[in-house]
């Protein structure tokens, strides 16, 4: 059975229309990128099927997958079967996947024992967050990319994406695109905000002039927990490669909160986007119907028209406190004349 499936697949590839050009010139140097485990194969195939059907089968942007362990042949085959685009597999260097030597083992062991939040006992989740915050964009396989679009196992795309989000961002000078904004478990980031404030106090010139700091503040000098979910993000990588972002990441890494707490790459990316970018460089892809386990983001009206297969009457995330606050803060900066008084 396997042999005949192979025969069908290779025949299908040979018969592919002439628009198939995995190595052809693209309007943007971009890729779909994920850190994944071999055990994620099924969930990743599910996600890729939808990325392909809803968008990428018309563009053939390459995929790049990286892993702290060697990918199995089964994984590589299973992934390649989902797309005609180029797929590359990479491994990680030790420095990007380690507990740094400045982390005190006793203090860290106590933290893991006492942590009462999801993944609180795990080394791997913390290494994953640190890697995605500080190292993924510097991976050698991403060297020639100008943009990446992060995907994850088990995510779904509910609607056709009838334009190219990379081109959309490039034409408008957008640096960070997001889809879901939520409030963080504050137990995972108790000192992230104070550490960030120290960083800013020491590097005040790094703040963007028209930044969205107000989107992060709780009104009492603290962090309100608002962040973009980084499992979907489309990013102009010059942002993460900037000296400002690198300095911020290094400062956080030295402070140890990726391990002594459980700082996620999502709040780190988001705080950086809100402080180091101008509001006009951040974009809400509210039109992209998206699911990550437990959260549906379904565009308004999608239930009864268009190509979507999601129910917007059951999708609340567009009206999450953090999404509403974002819209208000961004508009007050980008288009103050059109801004109504805040009721958020
Ligand atoms: P959540 O979205 O915060 O619940 O975290 P996930 O479990 O979805 O992990 C985020 C991403 O990192 C997914 O793409 C996972 O496949 C990947 N990931 C998480 N832990 C590891 C790990 O230990 N090794 C590798 N290679 N990937 C990981
Ligand atoms: Mn996930």
- Classify the fold: give the CATH topology: Spore Coat Polysaccharide Biosynthesis Protein SpsA, Chain A
Order of helices and strands: HEHEHEHHEEHEEHEEHHHEEEH
As a percent range, the share of helical residues equals 25-40%
Q: Going across the biggest sheet, name each strand in turn.
A: 3-2-1-4-9-6-10
User: What is the average per-residue confidence, as pLDDT, rounded to a whole number?
Assistant: 94
Gyration radius from CA atoms, angstroms:
21 Å
Total number of domains: 1
Structural class: alpha/beta
Tell the overall outline. Answer: globular
Number of helices: 11
Looking at CATH, the homologous superfamily is Spore Coat Polysaccharide Biosynthesis Protein SpsA, Chain A
Low-confidence spans: pLDDT under 50, at least 5 residues?
14-18
Q: Main sheet?
A: 7 strands, mixed
Query: Which molecules are bound besides the chains?
Result: guanosine-5'-diphosphate, manganese (II) ion
CATH class category: Alpha Beta
Report the span from N to C terminus.
Answer: 59 Å
Q: In percent, how much strand structure appears in the residues?
A: 5-15%
GO molecular function: alpha-1,2-mannosyltransferase activity
InterPro entries: Glyco_trans_15, Nucleotide-diphossugar_trans
Keywords: Transferase
Pfam family, one: Glyco_transf_15
């Amino acid at each position: 059975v396997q042999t005949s499936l192979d025969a069908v697949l290779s025949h299908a590839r040979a018969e592919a229309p002439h628009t198939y050009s995995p190595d052809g010139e693209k309007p943007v140097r971009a890729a779909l990128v994920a850190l994944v485990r071999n055990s994620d194969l099924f969930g990743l195939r599910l996600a890729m099927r939808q990325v392909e059907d809803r968008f990428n089968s018309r563009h053939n942007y390459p995929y790049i997958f990286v892993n702290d362990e060697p990918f199995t042949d089964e994984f590589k085959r299973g992934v390649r079967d989902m797309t005609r685009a180029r797929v590359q597999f990479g491994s990680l260097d030790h420095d990007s996947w380690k507990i740094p030597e400045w982390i005190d083992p006793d203090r860290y062991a106590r933290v893991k024992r006492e942590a009462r939040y999801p993944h609180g006992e795990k080394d791997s989740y913390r290494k994953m967050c640190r890697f995605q915050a500080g190292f993924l964009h510097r991976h050698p396989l991403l060297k020639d990319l100008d943009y990446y679009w992060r995907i994850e196992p088990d995510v779904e795309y509910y609607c056709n994406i009838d334009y190219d989000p990379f081109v959309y961002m490039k034409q408008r000078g957008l640096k960070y695109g997001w889809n879901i904004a939520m409030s963080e478990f504050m137990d995972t980031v108790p000192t992230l905000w104070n550490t960030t404030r120290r960083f800013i106090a020491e590097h005040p010139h790094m703040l963007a002039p028209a930044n969205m700091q107000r989107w992060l503040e709780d009104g009492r000098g603290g962090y309100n927990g608002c962040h973009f979910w980084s499992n979907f993000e489309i990013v102009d990588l010059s942002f993460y490669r900037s000296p400002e972002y690198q300095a911020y990441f290094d400062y956080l890494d030295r402070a140890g909160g990726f391990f002594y707490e459980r700082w996620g790459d999502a709040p780190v990316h988001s705080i950086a986007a809100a402080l180091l970018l101008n509001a006009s460089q951040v974009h809400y892809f509210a039109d992209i119907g998206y699911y990550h386990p437990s959260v549906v983001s379904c565009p308004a009206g999608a239930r009864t028209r268009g190509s979507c297969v999601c129910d917007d009457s059951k999708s609340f995330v567009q009206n999450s406190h953090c999404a509403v606050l974002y819209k208000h803060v961004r508009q007050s900066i980008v288009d103050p004349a059109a801004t109504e008084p805040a009721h958020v």
